[in-house]
Amino acid sequence: MIAVRPSSDPGPVAVLLNPTAGRGRHRDALPGVLEQLRSTGREVTVLPATSADEALAACRTAVASGAGALVAAGGDGTIHLGLQAVAGTGVPFGAIPAGTGNDFVVELGLPGEPLPAAAAIARALREESIRKVDLARMTDAEGNVRWFGAVLAAGFDAIVNERANRMRFPKGPRRYDVAIVAELLRLRPRPYTLVLDGVEHHLDAVLVAVGNTACYGGGMRIVPAADPTDGLLDVVVGGRLSRVAFARIKPHVYRGTHVGHPLVTTYRAATVELRAEGIVSYVDGERSFPLPVTVTSAPGALTLLA
User: Fold this and answer.
1) DSSP bridge partners of 181
2) Using the 8-state DSSP alphabet, how is residue 47 labeled?
3) Within a 10 A sphere around the Cβ of 94, how many other Cβ atoms?
4) For the residues 185-203, what does the mean pLDDT come to?
5) What is the pTM of this model?
6) How far is the C-alpha of 233 from the C-alpha of 273, rounded, in Å?
7) CA 135 to CA 284: how far, in whole Å?
8) Residue 280 vs residue 5, higher pLDDT
């Protein structure tokens, strides 16, 4: 049961910190983040968490117990966990980028460094300044739900992530590079069924992405027209691309100009059903549900401190 507080008591500001985000490069900024938040005069509670599961549980408990706001400081994965707790609740959310990509934060036009972001959130807390933005609500075949703010990947990039996550060698970023090469050698179009607002499409593709915002992977504008305020999802499909064609268009993703390729198709819909065999989706860079999934735009589901 969600606690109800009088209007004079907005509840504490619950803070999820991930000091290991971005390989720890912003660890030293986190005390300054807390100092900025405490300067508002609001009670600030740091949530205890030593794993992703603990972090998610702590965020949900804080919101259910009457937190007046939830602030997540970390990479896209940390912010993704926070979204699961606040989506659709109206509880204000603050996003402090401290990772390597920070795609969701950047696409919302928020400060891209921890201390300026904390200062902006502190100002929003003092002024009670919020704005509503859309989220995407994903449901799997068993009815499990996950929210995401940026992009769902269900093609080559998701397959590469699956391979990299299974590998034990090499360690670090090199593992991902090796996985890319291995999957490029195996690249082939796969059959997908895409249902857009009830209209069914059967297609073969090597790249499939559904975006609430434009970017993933640290600035790759995979769904360049996605707008988190229009109540719609954008879909980009790279069709029967050869290895050579795929390798040539990949650099264009950083500018979003890959959508001009004749084998790349874009769509827009409020609800997207995505079916394929043997594909595990990734959302906001995190491993998620195996296909099939249904993704629905949730207008204004996130109350953002801004």
Assistant:
1) none
2) P
3) 27
4) 96
5) 0.92
6) 11
7) 12
8) 280
